[in-house]
C-alpha cells in the first residue's frame, strides 16, 4: 500500500476520527469474561501477559493452573514473587500422564474449589483460570456450575479462561473471545524440540 | 464427550503415545522466527508472556516497541526492572496521531536501527519486535532488508514479531505463526471502555 503524503494524511485523519468516535461511545467499565481458545500457541502466554499488566498496575492477580502442574514454568516464578499475585497450580501435568479419569476429576474439583474461593473473595481484580477449557471439554466439571459461578462473580472482576476447545456456551457467555489459530508450527514441520522461553 | 473409564484409558494412552512419538522426532534446537498476527487481541500480550518466561529462565530479553511509545504499559515497567531485559520504545504512539508519513518513516528507521544493533550483538536469547508488522504493512521499512537481517541473525536467537497484517513473505520465512482471530470484542459490541490490566 504505497501512498502519497496527502493521501496518507487524509487516510490517517479518517482512521483517527473513526477510532475517537468508537472510543467516545465506549464508556462502561465492568469485569470482563475473556476466553483464549484455538489450537494455536499463545493462549496461556497472552493470559500471563495480561496478568503481568495487572500486577504492574498494582492490582491483585489470582491464577489457578488446572493441568500444567508438572511442567516447570518460569512465568510462575516471576509472577509468584509479587505480593499482589497468588498463584495456585493443581493437577499432575497433562491429563494423559495420569491415565485415570477418576483421579483427573478429583484434581479438577480441587482446582475448581480453589477458583471458587478466589471468585467469591472479592479480593482480586483479575483471575486467570489456565487450561480450564480442557477440563470442561473432558466434562471433568459441570459446565452449568462453572457458568453460574462466573455469572454471579463480583462485578469488576476480570476472568481469563484459556485452553483448546472452549465450549460454545462459554463463548456465548464471554465478553471477549480470541481464537489462536495455528498457521505454522516448528514441532510438526521441522522436527524442532521445545525450547526454553518459547515453549516453557 | 462422555466416556467410560476403560475408553478414557485407551484414548489417553493412544494420545500419550502420539505425543511421545512426535516429541522424540523433534530433536533440533534453533532460534525461531515467531509471528503473532491477526485482528484479535493477545498478539503483544503473548509475546510479553514469552518474554516473561525468558527473563524467568535467566536468559537475556530485548524488546523494541515500534509504535506504542505514547501508551503507558505496565508490562514495560516490570520487564524493564530486570537486569536481563533491555526495553526500548520508539515512536509517538499510533501512527494516526502524528499525521505525518515522513515523521513516521524516520521513527521506524530509528526503531529498526535499534533492532539491528540488538540482532547483531549476539547478546540476546529472545528479541521482541512489537508492532513491526504494522510498520511493514505501511511500507515504512523495506521488507527485503528486514527479512535479510532476520536470515543472517545469530543461529540461536528467537525473534518475535507482532502486529496486524503480517506480510505474506514474513509468514513464509517464519518458523511459528499464530493468527489471533477476533471472535468477540467488548469495545464494539457493548460500549465498554479500555480497562487497566486488560487493554493497557
The interface involving the most residues is between:
A-B, 90 and 90 residues
Oligomer: homodimer
Q: CATH topology of chain A, which one?
A: Rossmann fold
- The H-level CATH homologous superfamily of chain A, spelled out, is P-loop containing nucleotide triphosphate hydrolases
Task: Describe the global form of chain A.
Answer: globular
Based on the structure given, which CATH architecture of chain A is correct? 3-Layer(aba) Sandwich
Global Rg of chain A: 19 Å
Q: Report the total helices of chain A.
A: 9
The biggest beta sheet of chain A, please?
6 strands, parallel
What is the helix fraction of residues of chain A, given as a range? 40-55%
Domains of chain A, number: 1
- Average pLDDT of chain A, rounded to a whole number, is 84
Could you give the count of β-strands of chain A? Answer: 6
CATH level 1 name of chain A:
Alpha Beta
Strand arrangement across the biggest beta sheet of chain A? 3-2-4-5-1-6
Q: Please trace the helix and strand order of chain A, writing H or E for each element.
A: HEHEHEHHEHHEHEH
Q: Which stretches of chain A of 5+ consecutive residues score pLDDT under 50? A: none
The secondary structure category of chain A is alpha/beta
Strand content of chain A: 15-25%
The end-to-end span of chain A amounts to 38 Å
EC number (chains A, B): 2.5.1.17
GO molecular function (chains A, B): ATP binding; corrinoid adenosyltransferase activity
Subcellular location (chains A, B): Cytoplasm
Keywords (chains A, B): ATP-binding, Cobalamin biosynthesis, Cytoplasm, Nucleotide-binding, Porphyrin biosynthesis, Transferase
Amino acid at each position: 500500500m504505497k501512498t502519497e503524503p496527502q493521501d496518507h494524511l487524509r487516510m490517517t485523519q479518517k482512521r483517527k476520527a473513526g477510532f475517537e468516535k468508537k472510543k467516545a461511545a465506549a464508556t462502561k467499565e465492568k469485569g470482563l469474561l475473556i476466553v483464549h481458545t484455538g489450537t494455536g500457541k499463545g493462549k496461556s502466554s497472552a493470559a500471563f501477559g495480561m496478568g503481568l499488566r495487572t500486577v504492574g498496575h498494582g492490582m491483585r492477580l489470582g491464577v489457578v493452573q488446572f493441568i500444567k502442574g508438572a511442567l516447570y514454568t518460569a512465568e510462575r516464578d516471576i509472577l509468584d514473587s509479587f505480593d499482589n499475585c497468588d498463584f495456585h497450580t493443581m493437577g499432575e501435568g497433562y491429563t494423559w500422564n495420569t491415565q485415570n479419569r477418576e483421579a483427573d476429576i478429583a484434581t479438577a474439583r480441587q482446582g475448581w474449589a480453589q477458583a471458587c474461593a478466589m471468585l467469591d473473595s472479592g479480593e482480586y481484580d483479575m483471575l486467570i483460570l489456565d487450561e480450564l477449557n480442557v477440563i470442561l471439554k473432558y466434562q471433568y466439571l459441570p459446565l452449568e456450575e462453572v457458568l453460574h459461578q462466573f455469572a454471579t462473580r463480583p462485578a469488576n472482576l476480570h476472568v481469563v479462561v484459556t485452553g483448546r476447545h472452549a465450549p460454545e456456551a462459554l463463548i456465548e457467555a464471554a465478553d471477549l473471545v480470541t481464537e489462536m489459530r495455528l498457521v505454522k508450527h516448528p514441532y510438526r514441520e521441522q522436527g524442532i524440540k521445545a525450547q526454553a522461553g518459547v515453549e516453557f
